[in-house]
Structures are given as structure tokens and as C-alpha cells.
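Project outcomes to date are best conveyed with an example. Our students and postdoctoral researchers have been running inverse folding experiments weekly, and each run begins with a structure described purely in C-alpha cells. The record below, which covers 311 residues, was selected by the lab manager from last quarter's runs and is presented without edits.
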């Protein structure tokens, strides 16, 4: 995991590459093309690109209209604006009608940093996983982001893709096959399982290595898809390790932790803890400083692990 890249950079390139062979792909943006990297698609395919301005609710309606006329519509902005600013329109115009619209949001969580609390969307997964018909994908590096974008566009029906802003280690090899609804094993282990997505995967992996130094075998799973969940991987981890710690740049409630808790409680209960932002808005600051203040750290993951290992 030596090389670092920002998933949003790959996202923009992937859209343009797909646009070369998919003439039904239409991309919309709400005046943030340079930040979301959809400007790459705009320059190459101006006739299939639309900047709606600071009008996210209208963007949803246009995307829905395009989907009804046979296009695959990708709408992109910051996570705080979609789903944040236009949840009602998403619910009524896309989810209810089960339209072929892909919401691909960048800049999620505390990683937004200096933009502050109003731009740090920590509830987008909670909002989107509750909507019927929606698939929710959470890629964790540039390879997975590209493949998730491809699969989301191929998939029939609405998809939400959470795309990271921060540079992160490359976790997957180019020849790896991505499948919606799967978790992927980054590291095997038998004593405890860490499940993470996005920027928290590298922190979970580092925590697992520190545990190895103390003779504790820690499994690391990458949660590539929140809806559908890889229930088989979760149940197996519950049965084989008996202890799970989730890690996410999101509120503790409604996201990965809640999804895993629902799965184990119904199928095979185990000891469970979560590392996430707990019932608090963020604030302005450098991402790493915010991660430290709000407990999205290797040390916090280890604290939760030691608590479970002591039971």
C-alpha cells in the first residue's frame, strides 16, 4: 500500500473512458466540475454534459427526465449537496420510480477538512441505504473507484457511489474483479475482524499489523458495498472470530456499523464495536487533525479491539 492517489481523480477519468463507448451516458454537475473532476468528461463530451449551476434539486429532476428517455444519467456534486440538499427530490423522483440514475458524490465526511461542518456530510450512507431500490457503493481506493463506477453505470436502477476526496493507498490490483454486494479480504485473521471502507481501510490495516506484533490475528475486510451487504462475509467473521470492529468516516448510527449490527443480530450475534463520529457535527480543520479529534484513528481502533479481546 505504498502508492497514494485520490479516488475523485480516478472518478473523473473513468467517466470519460466510459463515455467513449457508451453514447447513452449523460453527466450532470452542480457548478463543482473542477472539484468533482467531471470537467474531464465535459471537455471530451460537451453535448452529453450539463452544468445546472447551484441548483441540486433541479439536477435531480433533469437526471430523472434523462433516465426516462433512455439515457444513463450520472449526477455528481459534494455529498453534503447530494443527497444532503436534495433528499426529497431523490426520494420522490428517482427512488420511488426506480430510475436509472447514478448519484456519484465526492467530498464525504471529515475528509472535507477546512470547509467545515456544513460541508462535512456524515449521514449520506444513512440516508441512501434507507431508500428502496437504491444500491449503495463505498469504494476505498482508485482501482476500486474505477471499477465501482463502471459497475454502477452497467447496473439497472439507481445507485449511490460515495467517492473519497483524500489521497489513499492503492489496495487492489488492476486485474481484480469487482462485484456489487461483496466485501473483500485485505488480510486474514482468526481472533478479531476489522471492517472498514474509504479512508478508514488503511487505518484498520495498520491497527491489524500492530495487533500482530502482540500475537493477535486480525482479519481486515473492505466494505465495498453497503447495500446490498455481504452478509455471508459478516456472518463468517462473526462465527470464526467472534469479535468485529467497524471503522468509517460517517456517523456511528445509520452507516456501516448499523448495517453490520443488523446482520449479526439477526444471524449470529457477536461482540461488536464501531469507530466513527458519535452524534456530533465536525468543524473546520485539516483532515488529519479532525480525524485525531473525532477518534478516527489507529489508536481508537486498537482501543475498541482491546476492549473486545478482554471479554
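After processing, the design step wrote out the following sequence:
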Amino acid at each position: 500500500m505504498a502508492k497514494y492517489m485520490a479516488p475523485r481523480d480516478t472518478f473523473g477519468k473513468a467517466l470519460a473512458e466510459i463515455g467513449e463507448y457508451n453514447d447513452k451516458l449523460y453527466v450532470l454537475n452542480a457548478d463543482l466540475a473542477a472539484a468533482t473532476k467531471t470537467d474531464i468528461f465535459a471537455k471530451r463530451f460537451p453535448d452529453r454534459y450539463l452544468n445546472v449551476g447551484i441548483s441540486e434539486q433541479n439536477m435531480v429532476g433533469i437526471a430523472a427526465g434523462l433516465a426516462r428517455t433512455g439515457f444513463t444519467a450520472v449526477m455528481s456534486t459534494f455529498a453534503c449537496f447530494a443527497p444532503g440538499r436534495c433528499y426529497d427530490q431523490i426520494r420522490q423522483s428517482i427512488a420511488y420510480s426506480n430510475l436509472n440514475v447514478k448519484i456519484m458524490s465526492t467530498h464525504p465526511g471529515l475528509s472535507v477538512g477546512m470547509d467545515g461542518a456544513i460541508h462535512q456530510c456524515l449521514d449520506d450512507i444513512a440516508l441512501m441505504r434507507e431508500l428502496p431500490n437504491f444500491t449503495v457503493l463505498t469504494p476505498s481506493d482508485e482501482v476500486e473507484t474505477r471499477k465501482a463506477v463502471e459497475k454502477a453505470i452497467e447496473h439497472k436502477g439507481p445507485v449511490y457511489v460515495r467517492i473519497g476526496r483524500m489521497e489513499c493507498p492503492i489496495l487492489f490490483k488492476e486485474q481484480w474483479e469487482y462485484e456489487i454486494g461483496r466485501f473483500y479480504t485485505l488480510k486474514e485473521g482468526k481472533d478479531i475482524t476489522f471492517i472498514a471502507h474509504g479512508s478508514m481501510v488503511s487505518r484498520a490495516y495498520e491497527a491489524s499489523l500492530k495487533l500482530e506484533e502482540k500475537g493477535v490475528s486480525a482479519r481486515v475486510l473492505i466494505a465495498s458495498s453497503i447495500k446490498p451487504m455481504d452478509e455471508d462475509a459478516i456472518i463468517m467473521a462473526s462465527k470464526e472470530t467472534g469479535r468485529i470492529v467497524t471503522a468509517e468516516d460517517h456517523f456511528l448510527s445509520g452507516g456501516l456499523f448499523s448495517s453490520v449490527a443488523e446482520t449479526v443480530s439477526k444471524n449470529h450475534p457477536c461482540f461488536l464495536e464501531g469507530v466513527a463520529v458519535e452524534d456530533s457535527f465536525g468543524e473546520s480543520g485539516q483532515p488529519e487533525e479532525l480525524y485525531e479529534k473525532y477518534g478516527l484513528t489507529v489508536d481508537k481502533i486498537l482501543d475498541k479491539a482491546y476492549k473486545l479481546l478482554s471479554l
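The two ends are 32 Å apart (CA to CA). The domain at 183-309 is CATH 3.40.50.920 (Rossmann fold). The training component of this project remains on track.
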